[in-house]
Design brief:
Layout: E1 16-17, E2 32-37, E3 42-47, E4 52-55, E5 60-66, E6 70-76, E7 81-85, H1 97-119, E8 126-131, H2 142-157, E9 161-166, E10 172-177, E11 182-187, H3 190-208
Parallel strand pairs: 3-5, 8-9
Antiparallel strand pairs: 1-11, 2-3, 4-7, 5-10, 6-7, 6-8, 10-11
Length: 219
């Protein structure tokens, strides 16, 4: 079943600009926080790990904070609609490799399918990718695996990746303007790194005990 559709109203600081990608917007199962940013003059929808938001509202900005996680920002510049997900693969291991694959695929499929449900035009989709830093305390290579997974997935789906800001050792704050595809990112200081790593480790533990088949309960 599709996540509920929400419709935004319109409060954060300039980031490093990237640039150039409309439809129901909405977080998945409560994995988002909304507020009006007066400085941006926009309705900000912030997602956390396990979240996904799609919007065709020009007054909406989607934001997230990434450590080892990755966020895929996918948009259709003609239909002026886009969305962002935020996911973290489970740890690699003999019993977790297939889980990682299923979870990563479910995260990407949800975002792409919600866009296609509105536009029906896979050929117009374009992507930007962020995250994958080495900040996770559980496994040092999880960020690299997240980046490799999402890049390979987009290539296999034939969705061009226009830009990416990945790797390194610092968490990132990301803003995405879904109707234009514009994106911004800011590297976050060390004081935030431990909180991000702790949040990701907690999510990995939660994921171990959560079913991933079918519609994936985490979303």
């Amino acid at each position: 079943m599709s996540p509920p559709v929400i419709r935004p109203p319109r409060h954060s600081a300039p980031l490093h600009d990237d640039a150039p990608g409309r439809a129901p917007d909405g977080p998945s199962d409560g994995e988002a926080h909304r507020y009006h940013d007066h400085r941006l003059g926009a309705e900000v929808v912030n997602i956390v790990v396990g979240g996904c938001v799609v919007s065709d509202d020009p007054e909406v900005v989607i934001t997230t904070t990434l450590g080892s996680c990755v966020a895929a920002c996918i948009f259709d510049p003609v239909a002026a609609i886009g969305g962002m997900n935020h996911f973290l693969l489970p740890e690699a291991g003999t019993d977790m490799l297939s889980v990682s694959s299923r979870y990563g695929s479910a995260a990407m499929e949800q975002l792409i399918n919600r866009l296609l449900a509105v536009t029906g035009r896979r050929d117009r989709l374009r992507a930007k990718v962020f995250g994958g830093a080495s900040v996770n305390t559980v496994r040092s290579d999880v960020g690299q695996r997240n980046v490799a997974f999402v890049m390979d997935y987009l290539a296999a789906e034939g969705i061009p990746t226009l830009s990416w800001d990945v790797g390194g050792s610092a968490p990132r704050a990301v803003r995405f303007y879904p109707t234009t595809g514009r994106s911004q990112r800011r590297l976050i200081g060390e004081e935030t790194m431990h909180d991000v790593a702790r949040s990701e480790a907690s999510f990995l533990e939660r994921l171990r005990h959560t079913g991933i088949d079918g519609d994936i309960e985490l979303f």
